[in-house]
From TrEMBL:
Belongs to the UPF0065 (bug) family. This is Extra-cytoplasmic solute receptor. It comes from Acidovorax delafieldii 2AN. InterPro entries: BUG, Bug_dom1. It holds the Pfam family TctC.
Length: 325
């Protein structure tokens, strides 16, 4: 019910902000729009972008072409958008990497998250869960911590790669619990999860967008969820705070960025269309399938959340000494 109210409020806001745009930018869009996804085709970010893009196409009346530009921990796609013309015909899916992690993980970025983008609005947020192989002897976070402390440095954990939300979530967990686990980075979430399901690696932090079905099927066991409240799809899984690890909220988020300098009227129009798309039944269903929470709101709200996440994760990254160059 609360999510429905948020979406309805966002739609009301969208209607209020779209009217000035109509007078200021007649004829937009008059050509196809490019939506850059800084990940390969077929992943969760790509699938969600295509779903939202189709919903926006229906109301904009113009084709939106998804352009996959993976590489360099999302920096290739982000640089492409940062240097594009701010005319409303190029924008991108942006997540934790672009907006919160990379400025701390790289000594020098080819763009500034603060100066080189226009924040359009949020799309979704989804928590990460601490999961273990079903045969792992720990059935609670308390038992997990006891086992790790009894075997310091000998418990491995998987992640989709260095600097991924999953990697940094475990680094936060290690910092909060004063424990030591050994990181085994993979090239992507699928092979990391495959080895946890197969028992080659005992544990990982897993995003619900990829992990909800395997948790529900019992192929891995969730010990705790990194959200402020329990997830409706996993009502018996406690939050990390409930499990005795406070101040460890870990989630991935996504939103839309355009090049810096996008006119305010265009920003308002795209924000309005994005908020409308979050009410589209196909988008609502896709997010439910992925265990995602919609993030409707204003560009200012999305920017404030992203910058707060950048500050929060910067502390963890510096404490862990993680660098990607």
């Amino acid at each position: 019910m609360q999510r429905r109210h948020l979406l309805q409020n966002a739609l009301a806001l969208a209607g209020a902000t779209a009217a000035p745009w109509a007078a200021a930018q007649p004829g937009y869009p008059s050509q196809p729009i490019r939506w850059v996804v800084p990940y390969p085709a077929g992943g969760g970010t790509d699938v969600l972008a295509r779903t939202v893009a189709e919903a926006m196409r229906e109301t904009l009346g113009q084709q939106i072409i998804v352009d996959n530009r993976p590489g360099a921990s999302t920096n290739i796609g982000a640089q492409l958008v940062a240097t594009a013309k701010p005319d409303g015909y190029t924008f991108m899916s942006a997540d934790n990497a672009v907006l919160a992690f990379n400025e701390h993980l790289f000594s020098k970025l080819p763009f500034s998250p603060e100066k080189d983008f226009t924040y359009v609005g949020g799309i979704s947020r989804f928590p990460l869960a601490l999961v273990v192989h079903p045969a792992f002897e720990a059935r609670t976070v308390k038992e997990f911590l006891a086992y790790v402390r009894a075997h310091p440095g000998k418990v491995n954990y998987a992640s989709p790669g260095n600097g991924s939300p999953h990697h940094l979530a475990m680094e936060m967990f290690k910092t909060r619990t004063q424990t030591f686990l050994t990181h085994i980075p993979y090239r992507g979430a699928a092979p990391a999860l495959q080895d946890v399901m197969g028992g080659q690696v005992p544990c990982m932090f897993l995003d619900l967008a990829a992990g909800l079905p395997v948790i529900q099927s019992g192929k891995v066991r969730a010990l705790a969820i990194g959200s402020a409240q329990r997830v409706a799809a996993l009502p018996d899984v406690p939050t990390l705070a409930e499990a005795g690890v406070p101040n460890t909220e870990v989630f991935a988020f996504q939103g839309v960025l355009a090049p810096a300098g996008l006119p305010a009227a265009l920003t308002a129009r795209l924000n309005a269309e994005l908020n409308k798309a979050l009410l589209n039944p196909a988008v609502v269903k896709r997010m439910a399938d992925f265990g995602m929470e919609a993030l409707p709101g204003t560009p200012e709200q999305f920017r404030a959340m992203a910058r707060a996440e950048a500050a929060r994760w910067g502390e963890i990254i510096r404490a862990a000494g993680v660098k990607l160059d």
